[in-house]
Structures are given as C-alpha cells and as structure tokens.
Amino acid sequence: MVSRAERTWFADWWWTVDRLLLAAIAALMLAGIIFSLAASPPVAARLGLDPFHFVNRHIMYLIPAIGVLLAVSFLSPRAIRRAALVMFLVALALTAATLHFGAEVKGARRWIVLAGVNIQPSEFVKPAFVILVSWLFAEATRKTDVPANSLAIALLVAVVAVLVLQPDFGQTLLITLVFCALFFMTGMRFVWVLVLGGLAAAGGLVAYATIPHVARRIKRFLDPASGDTFQVDAAVESFIQGGWFGRGPGEGTVKRILPDSHADFVFAVAAEEFGIVVCLAVAALFAFIVLRSLRRAQRSDDAFARFAVTGLALLFGTQAAINMAVNLALIPAKGMTLPFISYGGSSMISLAYGVGMLLALSREQPRAELLAASSGLVLTERPA
Fold it and tell me: What is the pLDDT of residues 125-141, one digit of tens each?
C-alpha cells in the first residue's frame, strides 16, 4: 500500500489520480477481453486463422494501450499541450497521406501502412484536436485580443476537410459534435449556433446527394425494405434471443453469421450470450466514466483543464453511444468501435492516449499550486 507520507512520483500520482475512474476503465478493458473470447473465434475460423487469432491480437494491442494510458496520465498540462500539438500535426499529415497512399476499402481510404503496420491516423487526430481547441478556447476566455476562437474554427475546418475527402462521415460527425459542445461552453453567441447548425445540415444534404453509400445507409435506416439490412437485423435479433440473462458463454449464434461480430457488433454478441443485464452494466460503466469526468471538470479552477476534460469525456462517451445505438438499430449503420471492447489497434491505442490525458488533467491539485502553475510562478516554502 502506498502511504500518503511518501513523496515519490508514484505516490504523488496515486493519491491525486481518480482511482474510481481508473477502476472503471480497467473493468471495460477486462470486459473487452471476455467479449473478444466470445465473439472473435468464429470470425477467425471463417478466415482460416487460428481460433484465438483476434483474441491474441486484442491482448497484444491492449498491453501497449495500458502503457500509453498510464504514461500519459503522469504528464503535466503543459506537456499534454505540447504532445498534443505534435500528435495533431503528425496524425493530420498521415490522414491526408491516406488519400494518396492508403488502400481503398469499401470506397474509403482511411488506412496507411507504416513499417508493416496498418494504422488509421484519423483515430489519433481526435484526442489531439480536442486538447488543441480546448487550449484555444481557454485562451479566448483569458485574452480577448487573441483570435483563439477563429483559430479553433480553422482547425475544425482543416480536420473536417481531410475526413470528408476520405470519406469518413462518422468521425466527422463525432468531432463536430464535441467541438460544438466546447464552443457552447465558451458562451458562443446564438448566431454561431445558427451558422454551425446550418453548415452541418448543408453538409449532410450534400453527402446524401453526392455519396452513394451514405445515401444507401440513410435510406435503409428510414426504409429497411429498400436495401440489405442483414447485419443490423441480426444484431437486433441477438438482443431478443439473449433476453435478460443470455444464452450462456459460447452459445450465441449471431457471431457465426456477422462478419464484424468482433468489432462493430461485439455489443450484440454480448447481448445474446451474456444478456441485457450485462449490456446495461457495460452502458452504466460508460455513463459513470463520462459523468464522473464531467463532475471533475466542473470542479476545476483551470479553464483549459475544464474544457479538455469535458471534451475528452464527450468524445469517449459519444463514440460508445454511437456504437451501441447502431447495434440497436437506433441510428443509421456506422463503423465505429466500442471503446476498449471492440477489436482494433489504432482505436485502442488512441483511446488510451485520450483517456490518459483525461486522467492527467482531472488529477487533484491544490489550489495554490494550480494558481502558481497558471501564472508561471514557483512556490517555495517559507522558513519556519
């Protein structure tokens, strides 16, 4: 047990980090391993791979993800801002490079191979973008002569432009929603609400009119008879078949027919084998992480930490909500992972990076130290 009297770097971290948040995140990671054991063997068998191929890779991705999460949670706000700036520039450049060098998969170019590893760089743009716009919004509240809000909007336009060209409207929607929430926190004028809402509506109409697969997904959602809704129908059926307590581990059937049962539809597999009760428990974990993070943000005296923790929590929670809503056929189908549960290396490590920053910025800090850090002063002890 670490004593409060210890003055080591680990003791300082242990007694200031939100341990309940850390425990909830660890519970999600454990659930991800269990659900991967349930959902991925049939997918591996269909591809002629070892039955535990995706389970092993899931754990292989989880190990560095835990390392990234813990390492980032030790960083200071200044180090987080600097690292986010570098991460954003590199990830945005790689995301743009996918347009020319990435392989086309289902009509989109989102992946690029670096040193033999497939990477989806847009996943790393998201948390870094949240940190940078939070920094700009915080500066706007302190210095009215700095065009921080305009710079934040310019960053949004740059990110959205690259994502739309891939095209990746799911990530575009996610980033835009989080940006609008943070912009609202800064006290934006109502005219900006109208402008951003109008631009979002216009963008949706243009996407519907010009991009066939977007139009097909929306039409299938509004009128299931207009196209193939096999995956969504099977996912919904799994909730009905599983009932409250599930069929039991290994007894599910949906994983044998769904091509993405280990990734986008792992929540449906969990519903069939473990029941709606377990799914509600998972949803409660996500809700706890988001609400507790928002509570920590509300109590923060530092504008940057308040904006950043709020943005990272909304990014995390909204992504989870979109995945679960797709599994329940509540919104049009969109390939988006369930944080720390779905299979995916880029998603896993980028989520760990974002949650690590959330933990770092929500750490308890004495008010005197916080004020000194924000003003650049160094506190020294007075002689007795």
Answer: 999 999 999 999 998 88
Beta pairing class for 117-119 and 103-105: unpaired
Domain that holds residue 42: 16-364
Number of domain units in the chain: 1
Q: For residues 310-340, b (16+ Cβ closer than 10 Å) or e, as one string?
A: bbbbbbbbbbbbbbbebbbbeebbbbbbbbb
C-alpha 101/C-alpha 375 separation (Å) is 45
For residue 18, how many other CB atoms are within 10 A of its CB? 20
Would 375 be classed as within a structural domain?
Answer: no
**CA-based torsion, 205, 207, 213, 214: positive or negative:** negative
Give the phi and the psi of residue 383 in degrees, each rounded to 5. Answer: -65, 145
221 lies in some domain? yes
- Alpha-carbon torsion (252, 258, 262, 266), positive or negative: negative
CA distance 159 to 172: 8
**Closest by alpha carbon to 36, among 340, 251, 241, 350?**
340
Decide if 7 is inside a domain: no
Element (H, E) at 298: helix 276-299
Identify whether the C-beta of residue 271 lies closer than 8 Å to the C-beta of residue 279.
yes
The token duo for 333 is: 């189908």
Q: pLDDT by residue (tens digit) across 58-107? A: 999 999 999 999 999 999 999 999 999 999 999 999 999 998 887 776 66
d(CA 231, CA 229): 6
Q: Is residue 144 part of a domain?
A: yes
Q: Taking the alpha carbons of 202, 141, 74, 1 in that order, is the dihedral positive or negative? A: negative
